[in-house]
Each structure stands twice: as structure tokens, then as C-alpha cells.
Amino acid sequence: MADKLFGTTGVRKIYGKEFDLEMALNLGKALGTLVGNGTVLLARDARTTGLMVADTLSAGIMSTGVNVVRAGIIPTPTLAYLTMSKGYDAGLMVTASHNPPEYTGIKFWSKSSMGFTSDEERKLEKIYDSKKFTLAPWNQLGEELVIETAVDEHIEAILEKCDADLIRSKNFTVIVDPGNGAGCVLAPYLIQKLSSKVVTINAQPDGHFPGRKSEPEEESLGDLMELVKQTGADLGIAHDGDSDRVVFVTKTGEVIRGDRTIALLAGEYLKTSKKGTVVTTVDSSLALDEIVEQREGNIIRTPVGDIQVAVKVKEENAVMGGEACGVFILPEFHLAPEPFLASCRILEMMARTGKSFGELIETIPIYPLMKTKLTCPNEKKSIVMKNLVESLPKGLEDVVKVITVDGVGITLKEGWILVRPSGTEPVIRITCEGPTKDLVGSTLEKAKSIVEKTIDKA
Questions:
Q1: 97 given a catalytic annotation
Q2: Could you read off the pLDDT of 214-241 as tens digits, one per residue?
Q3: How far, in Å, are 71, 230, 322, 332, 352 from residue 165 at the CA level?
Q4: Of 63, 97, 220, 343, which is the active-site residue?
Q5: How far apart are CA 417 and CA 410, in angstroms?
Q6: Based on CB atoms within 10 Å of each CB, which residue in 78, 391, 429, 455 is the most buried?
Q7: How are strands ordered across the β-sheet holding 235-239?
Q8: pLDDT at 3 exceeding the cut of 60
Q9: Rounded distance, CA 412 to CA 395, Å?
Q10: Mind listing the domains of the chain with CATH numbers?
């Protein structure tokens, strides 16, 4: 049942087709019923549907007798941090993260600063499906308050965690691209406190995402890459729609893949924590394993999704966790994605070593990695994935191991392939990494052909 409502992280659907205000109202009522009493923190990203959905959720929550505190447009990490630091009973973020503008959605956060686990999502969904909501009488309804200090409090906490004076002493030039998303209200202001030379691009909140598509990746960051090169800036920083992801650009305009940056930061954390554990997802590069092994650390891989990583980080008392898409979980601070402190850690390393980000990242090996995706109706996904467990390894050569922790992962003699259904779109994603571009390209084509046939037969 959970697959119908919840995806990889929370609820994320196309507004008007798969998501409507009745759904938002009932999710609000379900959350209020689950929480029982107390206060929920509610915020949103810059999407056109955000205010309307947040108003509706708030009404649903208050109808159960639970209070709501509204924080306006803020990044998801700010909501998660404040839910923990202020001791709210839950946090609700109206966002569809990096998805296109027609999507809307809701992410649920617990007071531990972690996203709702699958168990918590199931409990919520059970209430949602049953429609057995708590109904408070007219004189015991929840109340709504507004706070306007969320961003300031988050920035202050970040500055306390990093060596701000060291970073300031270098007077770096930094270009920040929040992608017209929620990061507009925080990222440029944080960097401004660390450097007097801050340039912004796409820094006005706009739910149409006019500057670029919301997902920060090489194809969408052309303007930022060009601007970093032209201005001779020291670093480029790009965020997605709700700012739980961050991607970095070197001074030569190169976009660095998230798993290489995780490896760079993991190397730092493991210097001070011998035999520490680093958690990442099944689709991260083997380069990360290499760096962690060199530092005598352990690596644990989880299914895709920042909550899966956070759960394991907490369980294993890991030094850090992350996803290749640009998610960094730094448990020294909290258990939600924390792109802003990650940015500060990069600037700290640059300041301390006197090296550029490009020089630092050169120490992390690059393996060619290619991705593709194929359209697959949501109702076909489970049968397709079930059939691929057999058809994929059968159609490939040099198979060493088959892993089914999340989708179908295949370790080859040289490299790996991961095929997994998207939790948010009607597609199946294929990722392949290996020692050479040619080998990765041919392996990806073989895998794509097998997946296409399997979808056709389903």
C-alpha cells in the first residue's frame, strides 16, 4: 500500500493529476491524529502550489487539535534542524525536491531531525486510508503561529560548527546558484557571512524554475559553470528546489559528482575518527570505497534515499553519510541532509590547505559513470523488477555478484550496474560504472536492451 502514497522520500506527485487539495487535507488530519497533541512545524519551498497546499495541510492538522507553526519559504534542512532544535513533535515540508515544477509533495520529519522511516510512513498511511481522524471540538482546535527566525537560527548554528574566521581570512569569491528554489533565502546569506565576494545566479524564489531545471547536474548548470570560469571565482555552489542537495563547481568550471565530494569529506572525517563508518547508497562510485579503505574506515551501502542513509548513520554511529546526487548527512550537526555545513567544510579545507577545490578533488579517482532511464508505468514496475533479477544477470557477461537491496545491482569483474525503479517518476533508471568509457558505454547499452525487452514483455 505504501508505494501508492509514499515514494523514495515522502509524497511526491503531479499536481492536478495525482495530487489534489483533498489529499493534502487528509494528510494533515492523518498527521495530527498520529501526533495526538503538541505542535507541528510547517514550511514550504518556492513552488506555485506551495502556499495553497501548506494552508490546506495546516487546516487538516489544526482540525485534530494539534498546533501549527508556519515558517514560510525555507530550505528542507532548515525545517529538519529546527524540528529537532526546538523540539517540535513533527516537521512538514511542502516540496517536490528536485522534481519539475508541475510536481508537488510533502516530506515528513521527526523530532530527531530524521525523515519519517518507512514504519512511520506506514502508520501515517494506515490512518490516512482508514479516514479515522481525530476531530477536535470547536473550542479545542489547534492554533497557528508564525516564526520568521528559522533561517537566521540555522545560519547561526552552522557558523558555530565551522571555522568561520579561517574561511573569512581567505576572502574567497563564491558563486551561489540556488536554482530559484528555497535555498535563495539562505545560501547566499550564509556565504556572505564567510566571504565579502559573493555572486548569485537564479537567486529569486520562483516556482516556475525559469533559470534552469531544479536538479543540479552538469546538463543544467551551464550558466554557473561559465560564470565561475569567467569571473575566476574560487567555488561554485548549486542547490535543488528545496535545497537538500548541493553540487560543487571548480574554478575551471567542472561540475564534480556528489560521490567524489563525499569521498573528499569522508577522508577528512576519517582522519579524526579511526576505523569510522561512512554510509552511502548503492549507486555511489567505487572511488568512495577506495578512499574509505585507504583511511582504514568501513563503508556501508543502503537503498537509495536520504532517509535510508540517515537510519544507517544513526544505527552505526557513522561519521558521515551521503548520496551521489549531492546529499550530505553530517551527524555531528543533525540527521537530515545538510548542504550548507558541507559547503563550509569544503571552504575550510581550501582555506586550511591553500589548495583550490579542483586540486583537492584531484586526489579522488574518477571512474566513468553513465546513466539512462526508460519509461515504465508505475503499475508495471514490480513485475519488471522481479523479472530483471533473472533476465539481467543472464544477459550480461562476467557477473560476479547480484545484489537486490534496492533494485537489481550487479557487480561485474570490471565495474557495476544498478537498475532501479524511480520512487517519484514512471521510469526505471540504469546506472553503470567501470574502468573505461568504452566498456561502460557498451555495458550500459546491453543492460538498456535487456530492460527494454523486460518492460515490453510485462
A1: yes
A2: 999 999 999 999 999 999 999 999 999 9
A3: 30, 27, 27, 20, 11
A4: 97
A5: 5
A6: 78
A7: 197-200, 173-177, 235-239, 246-249, 255-256
A8: no
A9: 12
A10: 2-148 (3.40.120.10), 153-254 (3.40.120.10), 258-361 (3.40.120.10), 369-457 (3.30.310.50)
